[in-house]
From TrEMBL:
PANTHER family the record matches: ABC-TRANSPORTER METAL-BINDING PROTEIN, IRON TRANSPORT SYSTEM MEMBRANE PROTEIN HI_0360-RELATED
Localisation per UniProt entry: Cell membrane; Membrane
Pfam family, one: ABC-3
Organism: Kribbella koreensis
Superkingdom of the source species: Bacteria
Family listed: Belongs to the ABC-3 integral membrane protein family.
Record keywords, A-Z: Membrane, Transmembrane, Transmembrane helix, Transport
Membrane disposition: Multi-pass membrane protein
Name the record gives this protein: Anchored repeat-type ABC transporter permease subunit
Regions crossing the membrane: 12-32, 39-59, 65-83, 95-116, 136-153, 174-193, 199-215, 222-240, 246-267
InterPro entries with a match to the protein in the record: ABC_BtuC-like, ABC_TroCD, Anch_rpt-typ_ABC_trnsprt_perm
């Protein structure tokens, strides 16, 4: 049993993978809490697709994939924010238009690169075991900056998330706070794509936050519980991947999903069992 926990750490590539999934889990847990609080899961999905053309262009030009993804995600997020100002169009409609267009552009760009099939598969499904030292440093720096910004703007984000009209009445710059959150979601997704892949990255952003939402009514505690669940899911998924030689990204997401189901059933105040108990007691009183 001890060997099961210690053996993966004997390999440098596993050490890098553990560091990245830990950092990605923490960052996505914190940022994802604000996304879940504001019901913005669809924007997370949109950004995950929107970074694709930037990463594809960076791949073709042999430049930084992280920078390429961030630039593409920010351009798409800004486009969504601007085009959504037209009241004839709902935000989710504009998001659908732009994330489909971005993903299509990414496929076209990738098809111009020789041997793009393997690279596309790595992007879609993750390649956490192939992460280099430079990637670890990039994730660490970007993650630290995101956490600092989140802490600095925490009250403003919460105010806008709970009541946009109140936030507007007290003079908060809602448009720019939305843009800041979109940008932070973009960066969190880009630094996590290598861990779980483009298709599954939304789960790392949303599922730990959904778990925390079931476990607590306090936003502060939610911000602590979600990153812990994200980091836990990353570690367990990576251990299982090493032990059974299965896809790391998929196992990380499945671990988070198992935790979510457990929370949905056993959460002390909002779980299925608690709900059944309350109904039973209500019927007994009647």
């Amino acid at each position: 049993m001890i060997e099961f926990f210690t053996e993966p750490w004997d390999h440098v590539f596993m050490q890098r993978a553990f560091l990245v999934v830990l950092m990605s889990g923490v960052v996505c847990g914190v940022i994802g809490s604000h996304v879940a609080l504001r019901g913005m899961a669809f924007i997370g999905d949109a950004v995950a697709h929107a970074v694709f053309p930037g990463i594809a262009i960076a791949f073709v030009l042999h430049t930084s994939l992280v920078v390429g993804g961030i630039v593409a995600g920010l351009i798409t997020a800004l486009s969504v924010a601007v085009f959504s100002q037209n009241r004839r169009l709902k935000e989710d409609t504009v998001i659908g238009v732009f994330f489909a267009a971005a993903f299509g552009l990414g496929i076209v760009v990738m098809s111009t690169a020789p041997g793009y099939g393997g690279s596309l598969e790595s992007f879609l499904f993750g390649s956490v075991l192939g992460i280099g030292n430079g990637d670890v440093v990039t994730v660490a720096i970007a993650g630290a900056v995101l956490l600092l910004i989140t802490g600095a703007l925490h009250k403003e984000f919460v105010t806008v998330g709970l009541d946009r009209e109140t936030a507007r009445s007290v003079g908060l710059p809602i448009f720019w706070l939305d843009m800041a959150l979109y940008a932070m979601v973009t960066i969190a997704i880009v630094i996590s794509i290598q861990a779980v892949g483009n298709i599954l990255v939304l789960a790392l952003l949303i599922t730990p936050a959904a778990c925390a939402r079931l476990l607590t009514d306090r936003i502060g505690r939610m911000m602590l519980i979600a990153p812990l669940i994200g980091a836990f899911s990353g570690l367990v998924g990576l251990y299982l991947s090493y032990a059974f030689n299965l896809a790391a990204g998929g196992l990380i997401v499945l671990t988070a999903t198992v935790v979510f189901i457990a929370c949905w059933v056993f959460a002390p105040r909002h779980g299925l069992l608690k709900f059944a108990q309350v109904r039973k007691e209500s019927h007994a009183h009647n």
